[in-house]
Amino acid sequence: MGCLECDVPTDPLALAPVVLAIVLVVSAVGKLRAPSALAEAFRDLRVPAPLSGSLVVKALPWVEIALALGLVALGGLPGTAAAVATLVLFTAYLVLVVRALGFDEDVECACFGEFAPGRISRRTVVRNAWLVALAAVAVGVATQGPSVLTRIADGLLPWWWLAGAVAAAITTWLVVGGSSAAVPTVEPTAYADEEGDYVRYRTPALPIMLGDGTTTNLRALGTVRAQLLLYVSDWCSSCHDVVEEVPRWRELLGPVDVRLVLAAAPSDSTLTSADEPQSLHDTERLLDDSFGIRRTPSAILLGADGLLAGGPVTGHDDVLEFVEAIAVELGVAR
């Protein structure tokens, strides 16, 4: 008769640091693949200045990788230090997302870089709270002495049981986490016209409110002049530099109307302008759905021929490059 106790792991809680190590590696790789999104997330989350410098932003993914290695490879005091540092890190993430829920504008998380983009919600809070709980368990496991790898070598944590848990974690991420990366796009119309690699779709006739409270639609706006639409918000820190550039861009891009697009109503935004070119107010978030705009700042160019001429692009750096490319195309670059 077989030994039932021999078939049961004697230290199942040691799976907590393994799961956290997977999460940290996925998070780090996602951040390394989308560094600009991470920097903008720091600004939008209003991370205190001492903790939001460029050095900290660049180092964060590598810190996560180091912690992941420490959680599974280190034992004793170094392993405990790695577990405590992981607990502190995930607690800080939790505090940031809880605070962000109270902001007047939605905030893009960028917690996993390009792997799981999306606005912060209560679900984000629940996820981060669960990770904090796992980190607390990992601290308890680390104080017991041996590292996870040592426990596997000693047979305290059978490799096949560990492999099954890792497979479950990866499968859950692929099924649940990966689905949030889907982004709605503009549907092609009968007027689609291909020019090089950019397919120009007809500008959708989305209703939009002007800064003076009157309404129009995007297609009507572009019947006379091209329109550069800058999707920004009052509370988006990474939008400030873009907004400051608007007067210069209006002077530079003479034949193009440069307009701010806001999700807030005219009476609810300090960026509202009733002077031409007036601000646009997308209170129903129709631009979000039609163009796949998930965060601010973003930009899109509408041609005067009724077709999309460029974009959308998202992120502070990409918006600046987009405008410079328009200036080059118009022959007015400086």
TrEMBL record:
Which Pfam families did the record assign?
MauE
User: What topology in the membrane does the UniProt record assign?
Assistant: Multi-pass membrane protein
Chain ranges passing through the membrane: 14-34, 55-74, 80-98, 129-147, 159-176
Keyword vocabulary terms for this entry: Membrane, Transmembrane, Transmembrane helix
Where it sits in the cell: the answer is: Membrane
Which domain of life, per UniProt? Bacteria
Its main localization is membrane
Task: Give every Methylamine utilisation protein MauE domain span.
Answer: 14-139
Matches recorded under InterPro entries? Methylamine_util_MauE (IPR009908), Thioredoxin-like_sf (IPR036249)
Record-given protein name:
Methylamine utilisation protein MauE domain-containing protein
Which source organism? Terrabacter tumescens
